[in-house]
Specification:
By secondary structure, the chain is α/β, with parallel strands linked by helices. It has one domain (2-220): Phosphoglycerate mutase-like (Rossmann fold), CATH 3.40.50. It has helices at 13-17, 30-41, 57-70, 93-99, 101-109, 122-139, 151-162, 204-220; strands spanning 2-8, 50-53, 74-76, 144-149, 179-185, 188-196. Strands 3-2-4-1-5-6 form a six-stranded mixed beta sheet, with helices on both faces. α2 runs parallel beside α3, α4 packs across α5 (101-109) and α6 (122-139) crosses α7 (151-162). The longest helix is centred in the middle third of the chain and has 18 residues, at 122-139.
Amino acid sequence: MTKLILVRHGQTVWNKLGKYQGQADIELSEAGIEQAKLLGERFPFDQVSAIYSSPLKRARDTAEAVAKKFKLPIVACEAFREINFGQWEGLTYEEIHAKWEKEHTLLFKSPDLLTCPQGEGFSDVQDRAVKKMLEIVKAHDGETVVITAHGGVIRTLLCYALGMPLKNMWKIRQDNTAVNVVSAYDEGMVVELMNSTVHLAESAKTICDNFSAASVKGKKD
């Protein structure tokens, strides 16, 4: 049995602005850096054998917080990059919907059928991500492994683990630095935990209050 800890990256500036990131290499925001720090300090497992990550900075910097705790190297995996949103990257929900209403509606109603303009589809993402995940399972029998990636990627992996149609991927919530636990047996996969952010519990309100106060002050200044 291999235990997989799937972790979404911390908050980014574009997350705050509501912009679609995709494969744009956006850094963590101040709140995201704090989330990653708390993840590392309060990581829910005492032993980890390996850490894999999307090469995008927001995922890798989140992985660094965990790697520091366990003194492990990070293995970058192209297969765990977020979906290529193509022409949608850097745009907001409203901007995308205004220009590509049909395709954008399909994104949420039937993500398994969508191919983003000049980008890729979530079926492509699932194919590459699942293939790599299964390779990791085979290479780490009897071990606990961390995979740090993105909301879209992790949803596709959880759909596979649950035997759930990709069409339903948006029914799975993934908050920033969410922890998901999947145990992979010879007979199949068991999802033990989804979207846990208990490592943020004590500080979440303080972080939000501080950033709200800073935002108000900035407007006044």
